[in-house]
Design goal:
The protein is an alpha+beta fold and 118 residues long. It is built from three helices and five strands. The protein is elongated and about 65 Å long. The model has no long low-confidence stretch (mean pLDDT 89).
Length: 118
């Protein structure tokens, strides 16, 4: 008789690089201020023209941030609510409502498992 003990740990490490919006505009993410010179729909159309079906526009209920344009593959790796919580916490300190920030976002998933050997 062997008692089976499985320990499972799953964590994600996020690394964000945020800078002011420049041309060419496409990276992993754009954070669009409420009074930015380019609005969310124009950003979405631009992304669709440059990289069809590669980005999702997420509207925000935030005093300074109107929307976030995010590469779809990132949403496949991490829960949208958790990702947006982190993005808002980090970007709201540096964004004004008239800015558009671009960000490089890399997600590295770390998994560690422990199992009993039979």
């Amino acid at each position: 008789m062997s008692s089976e003990k499985n320990v499972y740990s799953r964590k994600a490490t996020l690394s964000l690089k945020i800078s002011e919006f420049e041309v060419p505009p496409m990276q992993d993410m754009l954070i669009i201020g409420r009074k930015a010179p380019i609005g969310p729909e124009a950003v979405r159309r631009m992304a669709e023209a440059l990289s069809p079906e590669q980005f999702t526009l997420i509207k925000m209920d935030h005093p300074k941030i109107e929307a976030v344009l995010l590469r779809n593959t990132l949403l496949q790796m991490l829960d949208e609510k958790l990702l947006m919580k982190i993005v808002l916490e980090e970007s709201e300190r540096m964004i004004s409502d008239s800015m558009v920030l671009r960000s490089e976002l890399k997600i590295a998933v770390s998994i560690q498992r422990e199992v009993d050997l039979l």
